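User: Okay, second chain of the day. Same drill as before: sequence in, structure tokens out.
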Amino acid sequence: MSSRILIVLCVLLLIVTSTSGAPFWVEWQAPESNLDGETVEVSNGTVRLNATIRGSVDYVEIEREYKDQQTDDRDIFRVENLKNQTIHAGTKNVTQVRVRAFGKSRGIDVTEFELIVNDATAPTLREFDTTRIDNTTIAVEGVVYDATQPHFVRFQASPGQEILNVRRLDNGRQTLGGFNIRRTSAEFERTLTIPRTQKNLTITLEDRADNTRTVTVPINKTTSVTTPTPSTTPTASTSTDTSPTTTTLTATPAATTMIGESQTSTPTSASTPSGETNPIRLGLNALLLITVIVGIGVLLR
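Assistant: Same drill. Structure tokens below.
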């Protein structure tokens, strides 16, 4: 009987030891393979995370934090893996990212890195409509898209310019909080004072990286007209020429052009996984080892 108990205890000891010591680590592919502790430059505020998790994963926790003078934006969420996970980075400052992978064997892999966005792409205007209401008023609506965060939409109206701040657009409500850096598009509706003698409307788009795009669209006399996405050369923030580029669209109404949106932390090394061992399991291992030694002593008497 004693020998059977001893054999069972040895088997349990092997199982617990092999489980608690199982390797667990993360191998990063994007945005870089060597990611932990690094500062990564990207051209787009929408960043994809891709990595292979070595070992049995329980869950992954992704934390992203961004601050500047106008916003304080923090996001934390759980995912099952690191296959094409999306995070968003700000424009004016560094975005800090922390990725924690938790293994079922209680192993933990932590990767921390920073993102810097060098956005040189101006916003685009899509799904834009103009409608003449009366001799002095028109209605406009549309969507502005950007690689990071759109900031201003400026309409050249009468008697001067009307400026729309994207931060205050929230389903018709004005929000006075900081920028939501996950917001890469904004839908707007406005009425503008435009005399009937004015046949075109000039609109300037600006993002938080100070890139601008200016487009000129025709004003329909009676009904809504949908203009195609303008093909322009944007004015990047790094350009020495500060004058915006203007594109004039033909007065003939065009069909709606729908254009879809386009848009790592490493372990220390693959050979040195960063798994950690549960102290309870270590205590259990020690207890089983003592039991085995005592049992062997009893058998040898």
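The mean pLDDT is 75.

User: Thanks, on to the next one.
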